[in-house]
Amino acid sequence: MANFGRFVCVLVPFCLTLASLVTMLVGGLSGVLDKSLYNFRINITDLSISPDMVSSIISGDAFNKRQEARNLTAADLGLDNVYDVNPWNYCYTKQDGERECTRAAFNWAEVALNSTTNDWNNILTSTGMNVTLPQEMTDAVKAFGTVSRWTQITFIIAWVALGVELFFGLFANCSRAFSCVTFLIALVAFIAVGAAAGLATGTAAIVVGAVEATQSVSGLDANMNTRFLTTVWLGVLFAAGATLFWMFTICCCAPDRSSRSRSRDNAGGEKYALGGLGVPANPGYQRLSDPNGYNSGYSSAYGQQYPRSDYGAPQGQYGGAYEPYSHRA
């Protein structure tokens, strides 16, 4: 019964670890495994930037001399309508409504945003304006790329730590030593899972907040995906529960050692249970005055009668008050 209790005690954190790994894979690979899931969305369908606004953002002498009469739209900048941003890629919805996703890649944000910045400069330059994006905008692009890269790194660490935790969890039922090692790994996994979820959530919150701050003048719209947030933070909750229950397997639910004790006792008794030729099968302590003891004869397995031992009951001050016992070898 104790072994069953230990099994249940280990099974609970093992299942929680598995649930955390599944949820973090689903959230971390959004846009790859599940193309309908995303971290945050930027909708630029209604993008409309006035020349006055562009002139206040973009630096360039030529731009101040030449301003377009109409506002700039997403089509003018070569942009699609909707962008869904994920940890490993982004998906976009074209002007005709078709939706596609880029190939998953490490550090995709820095490469893609640098390319987009260059494209914007080329588009604006092609209109006859000698302009460059301000340092504040390029710094923001670099910062987003850096945060996105570290988000990917923390997801990788979380996946690996949860996988190692599951491996050692398979042996946690054997001893408290394995439970202790599993608990330490679970602690690292919990920190990594929390960091990945926190970075993904923080990045989305900053970008969405910045877009909404300019919504009234730019027409941009952005929102965070609650399904993504629920998925990754459930992973954090599962990881926290697993860590807590792995700690319980160290303090409580000790492995049953009674079977080992019985095995040692039985092993020690075997050397007394096997009798040799002419030796009784179950020797023990017997009184000397017992007719079956050394004062009487005994027969061998072949029926031969052996004489009684010459050793009788001791005389003296112990007679009657104490009678010694002998061990029949």
UniProtKB/TrEMBL annotation:
Composition-biased stretches, type Polar residues, lie in: 292-307
Renumbered to this chain, the Low complexity biased-composition regions fall at: 311-322
Could you confirm whether the keyword Signal appears in this record? no
Fetch the Pfam families from UniProt.
Answer: SUR7
Q: Which first-to-last residue range defines the signal peptide? A: none
Q: Does the keyword Lyase apply?
A: no
Q: What is this protein called?
A: SUR7 protein
Task: Tell me what organism the protein belongs to.
Answer: Humicola insolens (Soft-rot fungus)
